[in-house]
Design goal:
The complex is a heterodimer of chains A (about 290) and B (about 240). Chain A is of the alpha/beta class. Chain A is built from 11 helices and 10 strands. Chain A has a 6-stranded mixed β-sheet with strand order 6-7-8-3-9-10, with helices on both faces. In chain A, strands 2-1-4-5 form a 4-stranded antiparallel β-sheet. Classes of the chains: A alpha/beta (about 290), B mainly alpha (about 240). At the A-B interface, helix 3 of A face helix 1 and helix 4 of B.
Chain lengths: ~290, ~240
Amino acid sequence: MMNSPEDTRSTAIAIEGLRVRRGRVEVLQGLDLHVPRGQVVGLLGPSGCGKTTLMRAIVGVQKVKGGTVSVLGQPAGSAALRHRVGYVTQAASVYDDLTIRQNLDYFRRVLGAARADVDSAIAATDLQEHAGRLVSSLSGGERSRVSLAAALLGSPDLLVLDEPTVGLDPLLRVELWGLFHRLADAGTSLLVSSHVMDEASRCDRLILMREGAVLADATPEELLAETGAADAEGAFLALLRRRHARHALPEAEDAPAEDAAAEETNEADAMEPANESDHDHQHDHRAAHQEEAR
Amino acid sequence: MNPTRVFATAGRVLNQIRHDPRTIGLLLVVPALLIGLVAWIFTDTPVFATIGPAILALFPFIVMFLVTSITTLRERRTGTLERLLSMPLGRGDFILGYTIAFGLIAVVQALIASAYALWVCGLDVKGDPWLLVAVAVTDAVLGSTLGLFASAFARTEFQVVQFMPLLVFPQILLGGIFFPRDQLPSGLKEISDWLPLSHAVDALNAVATNSHDAAYIGGQLLIIGAFALGAVVLGALTLQRRTA
């Protein structure tokens, strides 16, 4: 649209003024976003902040109220993009009553991809030993790998992955992030969502989201330099505090929040900082908890 | 519409069912058992000879309606449909693939049920027994396509099962199985003319009594086919790529 040809070549996803309403809630209220090509871009934010809705809009399965979403230079969801965009939903969207190989073989035929793609997708997700097993007999982590393998078929130009590393053992997580970077080096663009802040450092670029808005869109280094924080968790909190004065509560008012903080949800627990001894950090975190609990 | 994707989908659905032997057993055996039960109830009466042919159309219709509506609903709920619709799969490819897969199962089911009714229960058919099978198969396909259509309006398995009494029971009551259609009160008679199952029952009775020629039966099959096609088209329309 307003993009010059130069922009179209370097931009994987361009979003302007995207508005999405789900039920009575306006999940995204005029969101703007540019995702460059050939990078691993992390989409981080707490559960319920609109990550999944944004991703659904990008792959073209979300009804939108307004704004434009252009993917690889074409309107999101257009027929030409369906061969070029791989999508992994949050829940493993594969068939329980088929084996891994049968699942991948079906998706391969739908895509019209090469037969050899099935084996390379199985190898890339480290599923060789299970290939003949029914998906219903697999663990949660294995199932989400099957779902990821299905998205790799046909070597898409853009991969949209909704929390692909949830529930995986740390070693496998590292391996998958390695795979993401190998794919990016080969020219694939990746948008990977996560609510685990410690995955932020593994991304080339970070998008921090909260309550349907983009808080920050920068490289991890830029983000840390700008906020003066030690890690992505700290940077996230610093940005929140800038936006909402409430988050910068004085220490005394923190105390009654103990109970509320103890009843925190799993989503917030996943945002727990790795370094528990960092006292200041802990306090900031509790302030955030207090907000969440309200 | 792309034949590769249609047949890939049909093959995938059959593969899924292959991994579920209990469902296969139920699909293939239950209609025959129920027909046997009806025959037993009406031993030494002429009733089975009258309603037997119609029952032959009924059970495949109901069973296929339930199986198809629940399978497609599951596909909507587990996210596999969302994945497929973000891929180059056409809505027609999806629906037609399902119709072919369940149509094939319906053929086997109708063959078993018909053979059981004819040879074991001694159903007396004056016309060509293959026409009986043809009607039963068309009816099962109709059940499948109506099931596909109904699944679009249900969010849960509980809801989709409720569509059976809504869409299927009136057709059974008005179809001429329990009460001859030409003796229905005016109004109901006209409604029953517009229900696909009525035409299936008419066709089966025509085969059983050999009262009409094959062209009449072919015409009735065309009417049922038109309803099935209508359900497929409506089902494809309700399959939205973009959802709220």
